[in-house]
């Protein structure tokens, strides 16, 4: 009987303030969608770190005629210098750190360059002798880059030792920045949702002040009087959270796990299954914010 009464009062309040309830649903949906997008970005960053860090390479670039570093004082790398670098990479000293390596000639470097920049006008102006020879080194442990750098970087004929993780860290930093921006926008929208929930509850309490007065006179408990108002805010926020959860899942399943995976098959992407872990987080945020906002509003505007 009490449950039926509480649900009836809740539905009555929703009908009376339908436009405000719809506003709460939409604002909660938009704000939690930004939270979901930020969560997806973090999941993707973690996925890419695990995927790319295992495949990270160290590039040992050899001297060319135009190199200006101290180790290239004699000009382009000689055959003896190249063999010395190769011998070091094959030696027992480097064995604990070097998983494998591959020599890249200037001609091969030009082919890679032309493939990477095939839509750029600079392709026509770059020749093979302008690009350095290199050894592409796969590490046993990518965290041991500094050891390999120390072993090779001071050798004659070596111009530069480059770690791909430096570029990856820049990419991940940009993605983290995008995640922070999404969270910031979500925070502003959540504040709007909280204010809307408070306004909705306040209007609902005002429109039903006569009923609540009668309930107080007949001895209804504080919980019995306040619970319908509390449920109004929670239900509206939950509907918004459900829509945000669905949007987050569709984004992960169709865009990230579908289209992006097809476009970039060599990269590890998250999918809809990974996004499911964000659903309880979004629902929990919605319930918590709605409950706290409703309780504070009821304490101020509904004296029992």
From TrEMBL:
One cellular-component annotation, GO: plasma membrane
InterPro entries in alphabetical order: ABC3_permease_C, FtsX, FtsX_actino, FtsX_ECD
Keyword tags: Cell cycle, Cell division, Cell membrane, Membrane, Transmembrane, Transmembrane helix
BP term (GO), one: cell division
User: Taking every annotated instance into account, which residue ranges of this chain make up the domain FtsX extracellular?
Assistant: 56-161
Its transmembrane ranges are 21-45, 177-206, 227-256, 276-298
Q: Indicate yes or no for the key word Membrane.
A: yes
Topology relative to the membrane, per the entry? Answer: Multi-pass membrane protein
Pfam families documented for this protein:
FtsX, FtsX_ECD
Subcellular location(s) per record:
Cell membrane
Q: Where is the ABC3 transporter permease C-terminal domain?
A: 184-299
Complexes and interactors: Forms a membrane-associated complex with FtsE.
**Database matches in PANTHER family:** CELL DIVISION PROTEIN FTSX
What is this protein's function per UniProt? Answer: Part of the ABC transporter FtsEX involved in cellular division.
- Protein family according to the UniProt entry: Belongs to the ABC-4 integral membrane protein family. FtsX subfamily.
Report the NCBIfam families cross-referenced here: FtsX_actino
What name is this protein filed under?
Cell division protein FtsX
């Amino acid at each position: 009987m009490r449950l039926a009464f509480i649900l009836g009062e809740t539905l009555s309040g929703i009908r009376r303030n339908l436009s405000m309830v719809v506003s709460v649903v939409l604002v909660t949906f938009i704000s939690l969608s930004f939270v979901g997008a930020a969560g997806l970005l973090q999941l993707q960053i973690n996925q890419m770190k695990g995927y790319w860090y295992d495949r990270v390479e160290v590039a040992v670039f050899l001297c060319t005629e135009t190199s200006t570093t101290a180790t290239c004082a004699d000009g382009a790398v000689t055959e003896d210098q190249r063999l010395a670098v190769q011998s070091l990479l094959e030696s027992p000293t480097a064995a604990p750190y070097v998983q494998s390596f591959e020599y890249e000639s200037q001609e091969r470097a030009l082919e890679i360059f032309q493939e990477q920049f095939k839509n750029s006008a600079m392709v026509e102006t770059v020749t093979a002798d302008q690009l350095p020879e290199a050894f592409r080194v796969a590490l046993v442990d990518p965290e041991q880059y500094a050891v390999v750098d120390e072993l090779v970087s001071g050798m004659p004929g070596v111009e530069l030792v480059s770690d791909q993780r430096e570029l990856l860290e820049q990419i991940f930093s940009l993605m983290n920045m995008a995640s922070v921006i999404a969270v910031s926008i979500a925070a502003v929208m959540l504040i709007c949702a909280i204010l809307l929930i408070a306004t909705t509850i306040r209007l609902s309490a005002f429109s039903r002040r006569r009923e609540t007065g009668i309930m107080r006179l007949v001895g209804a408990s504080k919980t019995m009087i306040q619970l319908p108002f509390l449920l109004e805010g929670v239900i509206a926020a939950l509907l918004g959270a459900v829509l945000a959860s669905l949007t987050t899942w569709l984004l992960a399943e169709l865009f990230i796990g579908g289209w992006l995976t097809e476009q970039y098959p060599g990269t590890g992407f998250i999918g809809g299954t990974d996004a499911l872990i964000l659903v309880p987080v979004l629902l929990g945020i919605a319930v918590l914010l709605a409950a706290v906002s409703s309780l504070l509003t009821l304490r101020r505007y509904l004296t029992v």
